[in-house]
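Today's session is about reading a structure prediction critically. Students often jump straight to the picture, but the first step is always the sequence itself: look for stretches that repeat, for charged clusters, for runs of hydrophobic residues. Only then move on to the predicted structure, which in these notes is written as discrete structure tokens rather than atom positions. Here is the chain we will use throughout the hour.
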Amino acid sequence: MKRLVLTITVILALGLTGTASAYIDGNATIEVKGAYANDTWTELTIENIKFGYPDFDGDGKWYGLVTVEPNATGCPTNLFDGPVNNVWSTGFQTSPTTVQSGPKTFPLDGAYGQRLCFYVVQMRSNSAVDSGYMGAQLLEVRPDTPDPGMTKAEARIIAKSKLAKKYGRSWRKGKARKVTCQPLSTIYNCKATWRYGGKSRKGSVIVKK
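Below is the predicted structure for this chain, in token form.
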């Protein structure tokens, strides 16, 4: 299965709100693995998100936020401009650390084409609240799982039945029976060895995949 990995390393320019007096420059790292929508765009599944703020300056506390928004509207640059669809948060952190989400599922509204949006919010010790838009990742529809087709073990089971029909009593009453199947483009070429009546025997059959 295809695994989608996105790594974002950006310089934060946290918007000023409340009593904030300066912008804060910092480094945030975000890695998303296995983020897919289903084919009706009604459910989001995520294997894991790593969200870190290694350059946190130690003033107050911070949290990372992941939302999902339709491509038609895009991600709000200012997190507080309006309602957002929260998918996951790191929770409040007081040190420059990295937090992982683990597997997550989230309902979508059915709009074709959506994206994940990433934000950092810092609650300062002077009660100021700063937020920064970190970027976005377009979602893809989960690819179909390839049909593995017939396995060698399944081919051997069918081959034994074919050998019984082809060689009759010799195969059914034979000893030390052994079957090996070699996969080709559309078939398995199966060969067998066994002993019957004090003699070594061998045979072959074709099994269609």
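Discussion point for the tutorial: Helices lie at 152-167, 169-172.
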